[in-house]
Amino acid sequence: MTFNNYNNEFYDTAEPNITVTLCEQGVEKYYSYPCGNGVNSTVYCDGIYSGFINSTCPYNVSYPVCVGNVVNSTYNAVPLLYGHSNLCSTQEFSSSETKCSCSFEQLGFANSSIIDP
Question: Is the pTM of this model over 0.70?
Answer without folding.
Answer: no
